[in-house]
Specification:
single chain; about 70 residues; mainly alpha; 4 helices; about 75% helix; elongated
Length: about 70
């Protein structure tokens, strides 16, 4: 059915995103992206987990988004 197909496509895309995050060169950038977009953690939780201030965590997040590559 259409719902099953869409669900399968979403799962496939999620696995691709997880794989590309895991392949990133910078571990802390990858960790921040994983916590935010895979684990759905709040910014406060991420800051505590990585041990950085709010400002530094957001700076690293911005850099990470610039380094993150998705296939087309």
């Amino acid at each position: 059915t259409k719902i099953v197909r869409i669900r399968s496509e979403c799962l496939e895309k999620k696995l691709e995103i997880e794989s590309r995050i895991a392949d990133m060169d910078d571990g802390i950038e990858a960790d921040i992206l994983r916590k935010r977009y895979i684990e759905f953690k709040s910014w406060e939780e991420i800051c505590v987990d990585v041990g950085y201030s709010w400002k530094q965590t957001h700076r690293l997040h911005s850099k990470a988004l610039g380094h993150f590559k998705m296939g087309v």
